[in-house]
Write a structure and sequence with these properties.
With 118 residues, the protein is an all-alpha fold. It contains four helices and no strands. The protein has one domain (4-116): 23S rRNA-intervening sequence (de novo design (two linked rop proteins)). The protein has helices spanning 4-23, 29-52, 58-84, 90-116. It is elongated and about 50 Å long. The chain starts with a helix and ends with a helix. Pfam families: 23S_rRNA_IVP (PF05635).
Length: 118
């Protein structure tokens, strides 16, 4: 089982990595759009996970975790979209995609656990 505070650090590192990646995208209209969207949702993952840790009930925990899941899935979308549009190579985004998928799986499992305990 992954420690909640380890996840807090992982989400923050993921946000930093996404910001660095997004900032390196070409300054075309599409590159700039992906940059803004990815920075928004990646930082949202980290900040919303912090709010998960402050949840005052299981219901609040599950609801806040659902937001984190939506935001990390959006990160995965924008990274994949940049790859699909051939703005970047798989080598450049492989580690980000792997981390997004791992975090998504962890968060979904956490939400299922909380919901099944009701």
């Amino acid at each position: 089982m992954v420690d909640r505070y380890e996840l807090k650090n992982r989400t923050k590192i993921f946000a930093h990595q996404c910001v660095k990646f997004a900032s390196s995208l070409p300054k075309t209209k599409l590159g700039s759009h992906i940059e803004c969207q990815l920075i928004r949702c990646a930082t949202s993952v980290a900040v919303n996970y912090r709010s998960v840790l402050l949840a005052q009930s299981d219901a609040a925990f599950a609801a806040k975790l659902s937001i984190v899941i939506e935001e990390i899935d959006e990160c995965d979308f924008w990274i994949e979209f940049a790859l699909d549009e051939e703005i970047v190579s798989l080598e450049v985004v492989a580690s980000l995609m792997k981390e997004a998928k791992e975090l998504t799986a962890i968060f979904i499992a956490g939400r299922k656990t909380i919901q099944s305990e009701k």
